[in-house]
Amino acid sequence: MEPIRIMPCLDMKEGRVVKGVNFINLRDAGDPVENAAFYQAEGADELAMLDIAATLENRKTRLEWVKNVAAVISIPLTVGGGIRSVEDIEMTLEAGADCVSMNSAAVADPELVQRASATFGKDKITVAIDGRRHADMPSGYEIVVAGGTRGTGKDCGAWARQCEQLGAGALLPTSMDGDGTLAGYDLEFTRMIADAADLPIIASGGAGELEHFYEGVVKGGAQVLLAASVFHFRTFTIRQVKEYLAEKGLPVAGM
Q1: Residue 253 belongs to a domain
Q2: pLDDT of residue 15
Q3: Active-site residue list
Q4: Helix, strand, coil % (nearest 5) of the chain?
Q5: Which range of residues forms the domain containing residue 67?
Q6: Strand, coil or helix: what is 122?
Q7: Distance CA 180, CA 204 (A)
Q8: Domains in the chain: how many in total?
Q9: Reduced to 3 states, what is the DSSP secondary structure of residue 80?
Q10: What pLDDT, on a 0 to 100 scale, did the predictor assign at position 146?
């Protein structure tokens, strides 16, 4: 097993880090540059920054946010939100991102994943799969886009398999039902995505207890553990999470 990596996530809106529940009811969680520097110093292995309003506001990711955050960290930075074209990816990488995350645009134009992977390399391309429970879908989950505001009628499991074929380098599944609830990752959803595609899986949405991180690996099949609320509001330090996982016998990056 590869060492497990911890990835705090900066959800961005109007230049600030925010955090909500089920993608709504946002509250302020601080300055992105201060948070980024703090998390690197704490031992984060990677950092995610998601412009959560870009698609809804029909605009591109704010590149100045990327530049400012990238300037204070040396760990890998994944940036998502408003990525709609190969040109957007190029500008985002030039601004300091190490990887981009796509959701709505990839669902609308799957060939974008293929073009992006061929142009920049698969290690630069993560596909975010936002899903919600839907009994009529073969996998039990429907893809949602536009910040969770719109269903697509498409199955999450089939999309995960297609993403692997198109050349994605990693998948970032987030269950809309679990996001921000602190009730734990949606393990059924995460495991379904992990079983559907032979790609690194970034567990996301709902971590609230130390045990949830462990479950994300052993039950969810994830290699990277993303969390926001528990780190932003200082419920746990990254060191606490890593020590807990190591005590449970998992290989942990930086330990």
Answers
A1: no
A2: 85
A3: 11, 130
A4: 35, 25, 40
A5: 5-247
A6: helix
A7: 10
A8: 1
A9: strand
A10: 78
